[in-house]
Amino acid sequence: MSDKIDIQKIAKLSRLKLTDVESEKLGGYLEQIIDYIDQLNQLDTSNVKPTSHVLPVHNVFRDDEASKSKNMDYLTGAPSNNKGHYEVPKII
Questions:
Q1: How many independent structural domains does the chain possess?
Q2: 20-30: average pLDDT
Q3: Residue 53 lies in a domain
Q4: Which of 21, 54, 60, 76 is spaced 20 to 30 A from 69 at the CA atom?
Q5: Is 76 part of any domain?
């Protein structure tokens, strides 16, 4: 790796107080991570199809249909309700 990582600058930006030992240890970890990323960047991925998920993801939607509830038990836990609706404090 050619670039030197400024651990103290990273610590200051992160508002961390690191000892010299912690700085050295963190610097070693970050250099290992960056070296691994450099190895991954050298891989030939020209024949690999881009993906956002490993497994296929499908959205399952249902129609949003309004219906009246005959059971008002859901309001029993509310601190305040009015005519079958939750009543909350005005914000604006």
A1: 1
A2: 93
A3: no
A4: 60
A5: no
pLDDT in tens, 46-58: 998 888 788 888 8
Domain range holding 39?
A: 18-43
Structure tokens at 30: 């970050």
Burial of 81 (0-12, 13-18, 19+ CB in 10 A): middle
The pTM assigned to this predicted structure is 0.48
| Interior angle at CA 37, CA 31 and CA 40, nearest 5 | 145
Mean pLDDT of the chain: 86
State the Cα–Cα distance between residues 1 and 38, nearest whole angstrom. Answer: 9
Domain membership flag for residue 25: yes
> What contacts 55, CB < 8 A, 6 or more positions away?
none
